[in-house]
Amino acid sequence: MLRASANRSVELSQWRSEHGKAEEEVDAEPSIDDDNEARRYSSTGSARQHLLAEALTVKAMLAGRPRLLENQAFRRLVRIVNYSLAHQGVLLAGLLILTLLLGVATVVWSGSLPVSVLVLPIVVGGVVLSLYSLRWVIAAAFACLVVAGAAGEVRAEYAWATVVVLITAAVALGLARSRARLGVTGTTGESMLVDLRDRLIAHGKLPPLPPEWEIDVVHRSAGRSEFSGDFLVAARSSEGLMLEVALVDVSGKGHGAGTRALLLSGAFGGLLGSLPPAEFLPAANAYLLRQRWAEGFATAVHAVVDLSSGRFEVRSAGHPPAIHYKSGSGRWDTLDATGGLLGVFEKDVYEPSTGLLRPGDALMLYTDGLVEAPRRDLADGIDKLQGEAERLVTKGFRHGAGTLVDAVASSDADDRALLLLWRT
Fold first, then answer.
1. Which terminus of the chain is more exposed, N or C, with fewer CB under 10 A?
2. Which domains are assigned to the chain?
3. Could you tell me the CA-to-CA distances from 134 to 80, 101, 163, 173, 262 in Å, in that order?
């Protein structure tokens, strides 16, 4: 290809010597449109335009070579970095060399370079190294500390720097030990937790509803944590006529409840819509019993709504009662669905409560963290929720879930969730 390009350049030079005007047209700087211009000249048919097309093709090829080389260099650098991060030996060798260089520097420039710089390889090693490899880096750092102390005068600055290195090493070892339990290094453990959180959110994604139906859901985790023990799963039948939602509250809170909620959300999401509505809670109870968790119970409320007629069924497993708003009477009524906790009793019975959602009606599901408080009875919390919901009617239900959570929750010490479904 290069030989053909050279031949084209020779032909172009010979033609330029006879035609000065063509030389002016070709001598311009290469541009990103050269290739398009070459195709246009080639399609016309005159000898002069064919030769211009050849010249533009050569220039476009030569102009793209620096960019191609830059991309190849970048890909090579990425491969080197990925290889280094995947091989503990390379990382360990690099950090040991860095530690020794810093140790020598603290001895040579003892007056200007503090020994506290030895925390740098320890911090980096705590992120990218395994527990075993990190110990070698820490040992090398302490060896450099001893040499620096023996080579110079021990002053207060040296003592404080030693304390800083000790604390940093202890923290790095603790983090590396916790990651070793998961069998991961670097930031992989944190990435896994973020991925688990995102999957939990994805399981609660609501399906699209017909135009006459609207839904609003709000989750608030305890202490503003990223993980919550409350989760929602939803499904809509293939014909689109039935909507099923289940709001679940796993015992506990924080990361422990969040990991259990993730496991249950995947299992319950698979059950929802795959079984007849009456069998969902018994199947969920049987699944939770098989886990044999020390803190393994959960509460749940399961609602099935016929989107064509508005008829619904609500079943509860030890969960606070759902609330039905009837626009005809203007009242919020609690639904008396009964059933035991999930994961406690075998072959429990979950009696449904039925009703009809007419235009203007609404159905509210929520978790106990919204209505419970240390010095407040659960019934009082539900009454407060109903009172705040009555004020919401005049403003409209849209964005009402967040308004109710903010108005009713006594604190953020527990997970809170609320679902509001209404018919326009």
1. N
2. 2-85 (no CATH), 88-186 (no CATH), 193-423 (3.60.40.10)
3. 22, 17, 18, 7, 32
